[in-house]
Design a protein that fits this description.
Layout: E1 2-8, E2 18-20, E3 27-29, H1 38-57, E4 62-70, E5 81-86, E6 89-95, E7 101-107, E8 110-117, E9 123-131, E10 136-138, E11 141-143, E12 152-156, E13 169-173, H2 174-179, H3 185-189, E14 195-197, E15 204-206, E16 214-218, E17 221-223, E18 234-240, E19 254-260, E20 268-275, E21 285-299, E22 305-320, E23 333-334, H4 336-344, E24 347-349, E25 357-359, E26 369-370
Parallel strand pairs: 4-10, 4-11, 9-12, 16-19
Antiparallel strand pairs: 1-22, 2-3, 4-7, 5-6, 5-8, 8-9, 13-18, 14-15, 16-17, 18-19, 20-21, 21-22, 23-26, 24-25
Length: about 375
């Protein structure tokens, strides 16, 4: 049985014990008791300051940039408005310069809707724009002049076939990860060209390197051992198979970098259950859940609640399986009675007395086995 929990962004009040997981926003405090004691208050302030520093230090963000032009003439449009929205909330925005260029940063990794507007032009909305960690996403937008007021042109974002910032690798989004028939980070990474994996769930070899030459990162922090991140908690998986950036240090094989999901401005959750007990004897059972929502929202000038300032995201998986690696053709096993006889009489005198003793297992026949 395997139990995996992953929490990002839980802010509560706690005292002496501080645990920071390998994520950008994971802080747990326990056993908090209010004491009118200056020493105690100093401890609390110190912990809160350290938590904030940790949050900013490990934040993983990307950048969106492009050019706004006239669809007919091709001329750039200065002072056009561009906003990036996620889950219905505006995350960032800007106006274009004299040459029609715009840049929105920082943006957390994920899928965004980009809207461009200008007086006298129709609104253009591009859905599903992917922002990746430490990368610049280019998105040029063409506006049509003279379109009826209120009319919005919706365009679906097309993921580039090649990533100019990672020509020898690939980035898998949350939607692509969920669609794959695996829940292993290594197996997801193995779908990238140049990576070998012997079997489902095994380690990977990148471009012929040893298995221990592959480095794993979660939200920019290097980790060792089991990843322990539920699929529902992953926003992106970036695989680098060559030309490893200097910031990753002495990696001789490749890089597998996992970016986790952050909190949302709306309450949302999910529950899933998978089982094979009705169809086979391997008894694969999986229970997964996710929960996200805001804790504190900022107030707009009109008094309404705006985007969330502090939020939480909680995800976990509970898995149990009787056989992790079932055979497609079955396995032969020695009959119980024969096995007991082998234990009692492990050796027999060789037919040729000069050979001494031989193992009794060398004289087994087909009738001594069961499938």
């Amino acid at each position: 049985m395997q139990l995996r929990f992953f929490i990002t962004t839980i802010l509560s009040k706690i005292n002496d014990i501080l645990v920071i997981n390998n994520t950008k926003r994971f802080v747990i405090f326990t056993n908090f008791k209010i004491k009118r004691n200056s020493v105690m208050l100093r401890k609390i302030y110190l912990i809160m300051a350290f938590a904030l520093i940790t949050t900013f230090a490990f934040a993983q963000t990307g950048t969106l940039k492009g050019v706004i032009t006239d669809a007919m003439s091709g001329e750039s449009i200065p002072f056009a408005n561009v906003v990036a929205e996620r889950n219905g909330n505006q995350i960032g925005g800007t106006t274009t310069d004299f040459d029609g260029n715009y840049t929105i940063k920082p943006l957390e990794p994920g899928s965004y809707t980009v809207k461009a507007t200008f007086v006298g032009y129709g609104t253009v909305e591009i859905t599903g724009v992917i922002i990746s960690v430490n990368k610049i996403t280019d998105q040029n937008i063409k506006l049509q002049e003279g379109v009826a007021i209120g009319e919005v042109q919706i365009i679906e974002y097309k993921k580039p076939l090649l990533d100019k910032d990672n020509l020898s690798g690939e980035t898998k989004t949350a939607e692509e990860i969920v669609a794959l028939p695996t829940r292993s980070v290594a197996s997801v990474a193995a779908t990238t060209a140049g990576i070998y994996q012997r079997d489902e769930g095994d380690g990977v070899n990148i471009r012929g390197s040893r298995g221990d030459a592959t480095e794993y990162y979660i939200d920019g922090i290097k980790v060792r051992g089991a990843m322990g991140v539920p699929t529902s908690g992953i926003e992106q998986i970036t695989v680098i198979t060559g030309g490893v950036p200097a910031k990753y240090g002495d990696a001789t094989g490749g890089i597998i970098s996992v970016t986790t999901k952050g909190p949302s401005s709306r309450f949302a959750g999910g529950l899933e259950y998978e089982t094979s007990s009705l169809f086979d004897d391997y008894n694969y059972n999986l229970l997964g859940f996710s929960l996200s929502g805001p804790i504190l929202k900022k107030r707009n000038t009109d008094g309404t609640k705006g985007n969330s300032i502090i939020g939480y995201f909680l995800a976990g998986e509970l898995r149990s399986v009787d056989d992790n690696d079932p055979s497609a053709i079955g396995r032969w096993k020695v009959k119980d009675a024969v096995l007991e006889d082998l234990r009692n009489n492990p050796f027999v005198v060789a037919p040729n007395s000069a050979a001494g003793f031989l193992s009794s297992s060398e004289f087994l026949e087909d009738s001594d086995f069961d499938l």
